[in-house]
Automatic annotation (TrEMBL), chain A:
Keyword Nucleus belongs to the record: yes
Keywords: Nucleus, Ribonucleoprotein, Ribosome biogenesis, rRNA processing
Residue ranges of the region described as Disordered: 1-40
Location relative to the cell: Nucleus, Nucleolus
Family per record: Belongs to the eukaryotic ribosomal protein eS8 family. Ribosome biogenesis protein NSA2 subfamily.
Function: Involved in the biogenesis of the 60S ribosomal subunit. May play a part in the quality control of pre-60S particles.
Biased composition (Basic residues): 13-33
Main location, first listed in the record: nucleus
Designated name of the protein: Ribosome biogenesis protein NSA2 homolog
TrEMBL record, chain B:
This protein's name: Nucleolar GTP-binding protein 1
């Protein structure tokens, strides 16, 4: 009955087969060709998955290669031209610089650029009423159609009291009500799930604002007490505006960017 | 032997990336894949809801399987629970399983949420995005389980390789300092092939081997060596031994190496014995002095000897063995096994269970009914034989010669061949050893063997004779009388005739022009008829006379001959009055006029034909709107389809 580390034990006692190293080497050498053959043969969903994986591997490989190259790659610079008289055979030489420094600088610049945020979504797509609302037919013979159901996510405040259902014009389904939003702080580069306080403005229409419809580009007020932000005066901030950056009806969640 | 604790059946736990691939491709395979924006929105919604639900269920099923298969530490035997705690760290193990459980719940919640959202999806695009978001969130949750999954996979692999120790059976535990000969003993008494090396901690984990003693199956557990230090300082390897000692109800063999080849002094070893003695409570314990080929108890210094002997008390016995010389090994084993067996029996007798068995046992002692003696009935022949034997015994020639004796005298087993024919019961004793041929006259003799054949044959012959005497076989001369012969003859002729008719109809060519029956009759001469009747066996004369009487010619027709008739028919055309004339040509001068008039006739009839009139006079006006065709509700079809 094999127990514990029986494989290692067996190898230790009897050794590996004589051509183990050879077989291993050959297998490794053959692997490239096998993979290539597989890549050609595979199709459908498996191909998609495989190609994605392979693509990522290749990117990773190239990055590694580049990193190794960067160590000793040399690049020309204009300003480092040697001063004074230069012998003719050195005239075409230009100043050279280590690439690594330059790339670091570039990275730094990019980072700074990324940090600057404007109002994230200045423009939004218009949404027609018949996309926003579904007509609900009422009446005994279902002939009346003055009732509307909102088909987009909404925010409904805690204090909301319904009208009698018979006379309620706009229905906001429970399934599409949201109370929290994933808010990204652009400077902290961190995302928090914060409770929504209210809808400040829906750019589509003031009516949507009133209904609390959450669409892309809507400005909402979120409770930032969790973040512990303070004003310059030293007061604790708790309400702050944020703009919704995704299509909540498509994603099932609300992502917003804090407006600072 | 099967153990309840078999951890080999746990299914492999895939890595988190593999896990995702498995689940998502299963969704792809098992759910419909074709959808078009033109479909009804309910169908589109249902399509995507099915995908989300299916994925969630697959995740749920897979995670549940993991949770169910891994042993719950509270439910397994304390030995295994403790061993797993030592090897895998209980907290870590529970945490990993707990995280998997949480992930399962989270995925369920995500699935539920998105199903609810999908109910409000109003376009294919929106439904698709929601599905994507749902699967994406499930995938994210699974990706976070990467570490738990890989840990569980490692645990599974290790668990599967644990020796399958049955915690409840008869067990010997071998323990002691490292390198004192525990594994050598193990190899001697069982077939377990434990590695033995001349350095400490060769054995790093528990090993189990099996042996038979007193027709019972025993397991022997070889433990890694333990050093003498406090429990907190013990490492994982030592802790395994401690776990086994603590939780298994077994006989303990504590090995001591008096030669100190192991590198530890006798004092150290004895102090270890003293320190772990609490673990031996209620267990039969043996202090085994190993390696007696190198150093025995007599050879050590007296104070050390004193130390060793003082360790032995009522509960602890001493035993000496040398695995190298093979002395004392079996004795030690037997001693330990006997002690354990005794203890187990005692334990059983103490327990409650034994009472329930003992209550059921009852040894009945029947009392005497009366004073009548009812001795056993022994046949007189047997009694005689016995007395003869007794007499023979008294003489010294004690017993009858048996086949065994014959065998012994005639060269023993393999040489002596038993004579099976010796006691055949045949008519003559001389025939006993005759060879019976297997085949005789090309036939298998065995097929014809019938012990009563003579008897049966004689019986048959007697019966035959009897029957012959009774005259059963006298052939009665049956005279065929006249009547019968005639009938037979007729029957034969009928049969022949039938055959002829059948043949004739068979050769008849149906494609040839044939005469109708009437014509045939006209063509046939009266002689044929007569012949035919004769063939049928009827009287032709009578028939002929009847025919004459019926078909007698009338007087006038008798005189006319065919020439006259012909002349009459040729003169028919000349007789204008009695012949019918073609009215279509009447009043017309020539053929041209005829064609013109025909044309005119067609033209004049055209309108009538168009109106489907029978003629000029047909002025019927039919029903224009039949009520049954134009009134009532129309659910299916058009009017003209009715």
């Amino acid at each position: 009955m094999p127990q514990n580390e029986y494989i290692e034990e067996s190898i230790r006692r009897h050794g590996r087969r004589m051509d183990h190293a050879e077989r291993k080497r050959k297998k490794e050498a053959r692997k490239v060709h096998k993979d290539a053959a597989f890549a050609q043969k595979v199709h459908g969903l498996k191909a998609k998955l495989y190609n994605k994986k392979r693509h990522n591997e290749k990117i990773q490989m190239k990055k590694t290669l580049k990193m190794h190259d960067e160590k000793n790659a040399k690049q020309k610079t204009d300003d480092a031209v040697p001063e004074g008289a230069v012998p003719a055979y050195l005239l075409d030489r230009e100043g050279q610089q280590r690439a690594k420094v330059l790339s670091n600088m570039l990275k730094q610049k990019r980072k700074e650029k990324a940090g600057k945020w404007n109002v994230p979504l200045p423009k939004v797509r218009g949404i027609a009423e018949d996309e926003m609302f579904r007509v609900v037919k009422t009446g005994k013979s279902k002939t009346k159609s003055w009732k509307r159901m909102v088909t987009k996510p909404t925010f409904v405040g805690d204090g909301f009291t319904r009208k009698p259902p018979k006379y309620e014009r706009f229905i906001r389904p429970m399934a599409l009500r949201y109370k929290k939003a994933n808010v990204t702080h652009p400077e902290l580069k961190a995302t928090f799930q914060l409770p929504i306080i209210g809808v400040k403005k829906n750019p589509q229409s003031p009516m949507y604002t009133q209904l609390g419809v959450l669409t892309k580009g809507t400005i909402i007020e979120v409770n930032v007490a969790e973040l512990g932000l303070v004003t310059t005066g030293g007061k604790v901030l708790w309400g702050k505006y944020a703009q919704i950056t995704n299509n909540p009806e498509n994603d099932g969640c609300i992502n917003a960017l804090l407006l600072v | 032997m099967t153990s309840i604790y078999n951890f080999k059946r746990i299914a492999p736990v895939p890595e988190s990336t593999d896990f995702l691939d498995i689940v998502l491709s299963k969704t792809q395979r098992k759910t419909p894949t074709v959808i078009h924006p033109g479909y009804k929105i309910t169908r589109i919604r249902q399509f995507y809801m099915r995908k989300v639900k299916f994925t969630q269920e697959t995740f749920d099923e897979k995670l549940r399987q993991i949770l169910e298969e891994f042993p719950v530490l509270d439910n397994v035997h304390p030995f295994y629970a403790d061993l797993m705690n030592v090897l895998y760290d209980k907290d870590h193990y529970k945490l990993a399983l707990g995280q998997i459980n949480t992930a399962k719940h989270l995925i369920d919640a995500v699935g539920k949420d998105y199903l609810r959202l999908l109910k409000f999806g109003d376009s294919l695009y929106r439904c698709k995005q929601l599905k994507r978001a749902a699967l994406g969130r499930m995938a994210t949750i699974m990706k976070r389980q990467k570490d738990s999954l890989s840990y569980l996979e490692q645990v599974r692999q290790h668990l599967a390789r644990l020796p399958s120790i049955d915690p409840n059976t008869r067990t010997l535990i071998v323990c002691g300092y490292p390198n004192v000969g525990k594994s050598s003993f193990m190899n001697k008494v069982t077939r377990a092939d434990v590695d033995v090396q001349p350095y400490a901690f060769t054995t790093k984990s528990l090993f189990v081997g099996h042996m038979d003693y007193k027709y019972l199956r025993w397991q022997v557990i070889d433990t890694p060596g333990i050093l003498d230090h406090p429990l907190e300082e013990r490492n994982t390897i030592e802790m395994q031994s401690i776990t086994a000692l603590a939780h298994l109800r077994a006989a303990v063999l504590f090995f001591v190496d008096l030669s100190e080849q192991c590198g530890y002094s006798i004092q150290d070893q004895m102090s270890l014995f003293a320190s772990i003695k609490p673990l031996f409570a209620n267990k039969p314990t043996l202090l085994v002095i190993s390696k007696t080929d190198v150093c025995t108890l007599d050879a050590v210094r007296p104070e050390e000897r004193q130390l060793v002997e003082s360790a032995c008390d009522s509960n602890v016995e001493m035993s000496q063995l040398s695995s190298y010389l093979d002395t004392g090994v079996i004795e030690t084993r037997n001693l330990a096994c006997d002690k354990l067996l005794l203890q187990r029996v005692e334990m059983k007798l103490k327990g409650n269970k034994v009472n329930s068995v003992l209550n059921k046992l009852n040894v009945a002692q029947p009392g005497r009914r009366d004073t009548v003696e009812r001795p056993a009935c022994i046949p007189t022949a047997v009694l005689e034989r016995r007395s003869r034997q007794d007499a023979a015994m008294a003489d010294g020639d004690d017993r009858p010669v048996l086949e065994r004796d014959l065998e012994a005298t005639n060269g023993g087993a393999g040489v002596y061949n038993i004579d099976l024919k010796k006691r055949y019961l045949l008519a003559s004793d001389e025939w006993r050893h005759d060879v019976i041929p297997e085949i005789m006259n090309g036939k298998n003799v065995a097929d014809f063997i019938d012990p009563d054949i003579e008897e049966k044959l004689a019986e048959l012959e007697r019966e035959e004779e009897r029957l012959a005497a009774e005259g059963l076989y006298d052939s009665a001369e049956e005279s065929e009388d006249e009547e019968e012969r005639r009938i037979r003859d007729v029957a034969r002729r009928i049969r022949q005739r039938k055959q002829v008719i059948a043949n004739e109809s068979r050769v008849k060519d149906v494609n040839r022009a044939t005469l109708t029956n009437k014509q045939k009759a006209a063509a046939s001469a009266p002689e044929d008829f007569v012949n035919h009747l004769q063939q049928l066996g009827l009287d032709p004369e009578a028939a002929a006379s009847t025919a004459q009487r019926i078909g007698r010619k009338r007087g006038r027709s008798e005189s006319r001959d065919p020439a006259v008739l012909l002349a009459r028919s040729s003169s028919l055309a000349a007789r204008a009055v009695s012949t019918q004339r073609d009215r279509s040509t009447m009043g017309l001068k020539n053929a041209r006029q005829k064609t013109v008039s025909d044309k005119k006739k067609l033209v004049s009839q055209r309108q009538m034909n168009l109106m489907a009139r029978a003629g000029e006079s047909d002025r019927k006006i039919g029903m224009k709107m039949p009520k049954h065709l134009v009134t009532g509700k129309r659910s299916i079809g058009t009017n003209d389809r009715r």
